[in-house]
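Two entries, shown back to back:
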Amino acid sequence: MSKVKIAMMGCFRSGTNFAKTILEQNYNCEVKNNVFGWKHGLLPIISADSNAQYHFDYEKAFFITKNPFSFLSSLFKYHLSVKRNLIAPNEFKQFIRTKIIVFDQGQANSPQLRFNNPIDFWTMMNWNYASKTDFVHIRYEWLVENPEVIIERAAGKMGLERISTNFITPQKEVKRINDAETTKSLEDYQTTVDFDKGRYLKHGYMTDFDSDDVRFVLSQLDDELLDKLGYVELVENLTA
């Protein structure tokens, strides 16, 4: 039986490779990174009379999100350690409050996206993804806490067939995986670095934020999007 082609979207550091690993290791599917141009980019709007054709090679699709606080923490660490694809300050307080430029460093003349701050980035990207009603939404925090339950629910919505007898979940940090790589066993997907689940299960990322930071983030969030993504209760608990 041929593998189901799954399109995947998500912001930087939102858990795309983690979700890809679990889906491909447990279900008869092939998760594709760049079906719509770039998995970390916006879904395009193509007019009916455009020379471009609105035809993309996929059968099902999902997007994955982190809650805004864990996203900001992860994105800042990515910015400092990887030093790719972002133009932004290197100090956390400035980082969350200042404009951010996003681009694909793999392209010599990549177009750029400009956002007022990383919260604006989180809002615009996830609003765009959530607007596609045929996309399945996966919340990263839920996936880390209950991987089999959450991925089984998503797989059911996408009509995927289970192939593993014992559910396979990465115990190490996963690699950044592109579509050209050959991945078969779990070892092909993960690094040798232990995965710190506690950072998400116990919300350790909140130590990055002082009270002023929390107030600023809350002032920038879109309540309608928080509700749409199912983060209202979590954000209230994190900031109580």
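entry 2 starts here
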Amino acid sequence: MPGTVRRWNYPPPLCIAQCGGIQEEMEGMILSPGFPGNYPSNSDCTWRIYLPVGYGAHVQFLNFSTEANHDFLEIRNGPLDTSTVIGRFSGQDVPPSLLTTSHETTVYFHSDHSQNKPGFRLEYQAYELNECLDPEPFRYGVVVGAGYNVGQSIAFECLPGYQLMGHSILTCEHGTTRNWDRPFPRCEVPCGGNIKSDNGTIFSPGYPEEYPTSADCTWLITVATGLGVRLNFTLLQVHGPHDFITVWDGPQETARKLGVFTDGEPNEPASSTSNQILVRFRSNTEKGGLFRINYQGM
């Protein structure tokens, strides 16, 4: 300022370590409040580290001094107060470095009413986490979603004629090793079922493997009201007379029979007079076989 004595218009500013905050950089430093001076009494400070999905934090301690057993620092593997505590430190010993396995990390510091100490200084660096196991190839189905990092989810869908066995959505879990939260599902051909669609395919149980002995499967196909159902046997390796497919013109076996189908008989397409058709397959030999039936509402 002007005058015979030169002085600043304001007192020099101070840089003071704050109690808590948000860190979103790929590397950074966290200081106890007041560092390198003593931290204040009755402090409860929370810092949250937010990194991109697929990264964890490598935490290294440079200084550490707290009142043993009363003032402590916690590192939590996640963004919540209830997230798993992976390190709790108190006293004079500098803690070892540690790795978080989440892209979100919580640092919590508590001090009581007595014996203030210099506190702590730590630094963190982002490191790339391993991905969960690649689910491909997913036999007889498709996987929706290309991310296999921690916290990411993928969905499983089966090809027409197959049924999903297991959970359709899996999420990559946090942890020192990357694991999906549930086992991989699988796509299987169901032995029968209640089908409601205007077109599709019925496969023999176990397709494309041969069907088992003593199978007894029933499918009820329902298309839109006003349509009939047309069956076309595009593959028929069913060995009569003990293995056979029976078709009825309606929802029950008391309806008019449209035919019994095996690989030794002429197999013209079967058509219903209503919007429902019943298909039953029975096998009683150990020879095995295959079939594939396309259906369409017409």
